[in-house]
Amino acid sequence: MAMYTTTDDVGGLLPEQIGALVVQPVIDGSVAAQIGTVVTIGSTTYRVPLVTADPAAAWVAEGAEISPADATMDELECTPSKVAGLTIISRELAEDSSPAAQQVVGDGLARDIARKVDAAFFDADGATTNGPGGLEALTMSTANYAADGPANLDWAAEAISKSEQKGGSLTSFVTDPATALVLAKVKEGTASNAPLLGRDATSATSRSVLGVPLLVSSSVTAGTIYGIDSRFVQVVVRDNTRLEVDKSAYFSSDRVGVKATMRVGFAFTHPLALVKVTESA
């Protein structure tokens, strides 16, 4: 569908709008990028060397020969997939708008790309058509909370321990909005109104669980909490997101095309250090 100056829902793009529009780039808007490590590449495939077994050390007597040992190596390959959006606006809307309509529409595409990145990362099936595989494609460590909901933080202690047992150290938890609300309502005790979740007095939306930051994404399956170690989660981006404007493709109708493209993939280098927390069966 094309957009014109007469389109009902474009008033915010015209000079009548109040204040400046500030739109965060895709990377800042994606929860997956916030909990992982963003790696920007300029090639088609990103290769990560993995050490699957360390070289062996041993106690030796003074002057004795030291037996050599080799590490066992493997390699993880990640080829970023393309996510893209295209929208069309009239030349009048583009020229009469302040700020430029094509930039605002492009920013909107960038926000939706961020949502698509998160949807692929947290996809319940672990696979997105034409997209990269996400967390659910992995064999992660697991933990549970009670069948009537997370009434305490025992699940978090278990998740932290499970990750540590595999050499990890959780840097964030992430869950869906409904579960985050349940956690926010958990009190320190039956006679207390103080929330059990840690909060930053300088930020109303900042939350932590046993010292680990808690983030929220609507792309996470309801009732699921992930424990993430950012060292082992890489969001691989090929170049930066591109916002491009073309006036030639729709020359005969005097319209302008606005296109946003991004190539992104996920590399999980140590899945067992990640933890999936769900309700007890």
TrEMBL record:
Per its UniProt entry, which superkingdom is the organism in? Bacteria
Which Pfam families does the protein's record reference? Answer: Phage_capsid
Q: Where in the cell is it found?
A: Virion
Where does the Phage capsid-like C-terminal domain start and stop, copy by copy?
11-277
Gene3D superfamilies per the UniProt record, alphabetical: hypothetical protein PF0899 domain (3.30.2320.10), Major capsid protein gp5 (3.30.2400.10)
Its principal location?
virion
Protein name per UniProt: Phage major capsid protein
Upper lineage is: Bacteria, Bacillati, Actinomycetota, Actinomycetes, Propionibacteriales
